[in-house]
Fold:
Amino acid sequence: MAKNCNFLVIFQCKHQSIVLQLAQYTLRKSPVPDCNRCSCFVRNAALESSGMALPKAVKTGTTICGIVFKDGVILGADTRATDGSTVASLNCQKIHYLAPNMYCCGAGTAADTEQTTKLISSNLELHSLNTGRQAPLSTALKMLAQMLFKYQGHISAALVLGGVDRLGPHIYSVHPHGSVDRLPYVTMGSGSLAAMAVFESRYRPNMELEEGKKLVRDAIAAGIFNDLGSGTNVDLCVITKDGAQMLRPYDVANVKGARQERYRFKRGTTAVLKTRLRKFDVQEEEVVSMDTSEASGSA
Amino acid sequence: MMETVQQVTPSYAAPLPEWLSAEHDMGTTLVAAEFPGGVVIGADSRTSTGTYVANRVSNKITRITDSVYCCRSGSAADTQALADIVSYRMAMHEIEMGRPAAVRTVANTFREMCYQYRDDLMAGILCAGYDRTHGGQIYSLPIGGMMVRQKVASGGSGSTYIYGYLDSNYKPDFTAEQCVDFIRKGVSLAIHRDGSSGGVCRVAIITANGVERRTFTGDQLFVPQ
Structure:
């Protein structure tokens, strides 16, 4: 991408008031813009020069995946959020709600995936109220893809969108630059290669529910055990035409070891040297509030 | 005065693989050829992100109107967005005109956008279709925004390996089936040599009667002896 992206595309249709915008503003290559008059950037620069680095955005590392099975779709995700090489959250939720019949797994920068899915979920609800019907998956897909393309990849959100609408079950993958793929099984995130290996060897069309759940669980487990950026539990979301069912956690892949004994100290381990009793006179006070607003009482 | 403490946190994590942040790219082989009565267009199906194949069965032949299709190469995001916009504008155009859009109109719409945003886009398009006025036409729109009509056109990284094959084997009086065979062999040869091309060979035949789409899986590709 060129250094100054001025990709502004507006289409105004004569007969409708729809404005289709794609990428709408000048984007710079580096995160610090030329304008140094902005107070927060001056402050950040001062902090950096005094030795305090900017906190890194929490990335989810992640293994996420989705499959189409006989009656619908199954989405799966791990639950580890990383901040560099530290685990920021052991049990974060990566399967986000979009609509009663659509859920979206998110990989990449945690804030980006969370906010993007929230925004599109809210827009979908408004769209559904406006049109008086349940929006198909392609609506959510277009909203997501067009928003990500608009930001030219700077919103680091790699998504697996899945759901069932009147046209059937669908799984889509959306990449941070705004490209879209429709496939029977997809994986995204740093653990996607491990998960894809499981899918490529065991996926079959029209699987039963239990078989499908096991396959997705195994794919996420492959990511959890073979990728440093993924870990802890496996979350699943099963969506059929009757609705969606979140299974969180579906499988606790890493069970914490149980303590062998009670490791408390026995009473009397610490000797009591002196005891002093002080009496306090406690007065109970009851506060009754009076309505002193203008609206109450007589003038 | 506070002494600034330099904190050195050793990073145990390996550097993130480049395919996590690379843009979705379609290495690609695209071929198109005219025959009396229509056009045949073909493409491979590999979409790569760095060295990882993100989609091994992608559909690079995209519908713009019922009788005009385009083959996409370059950045997946850019070309999908372009095809969406041109498709939307041509749908409006057809409603306003009351008749199907001419292939040249579609190609010109592509060219306008590709040229105006040539610094920001990475898109190589083959726009092909059929209209009643001029029959089957193919317009090649390489990166940069040029538009040129050709009887035989190719695009993408794999096309460089089959220039010789296309030039020496094309005949203007092919039947539809011969043309399909010509395209299939061309894409197969390019897949054989180009690392960024692979998967299946998708073909579309566009004539006055409409569009027929075919897919040639690995066993049906042409393998040189």
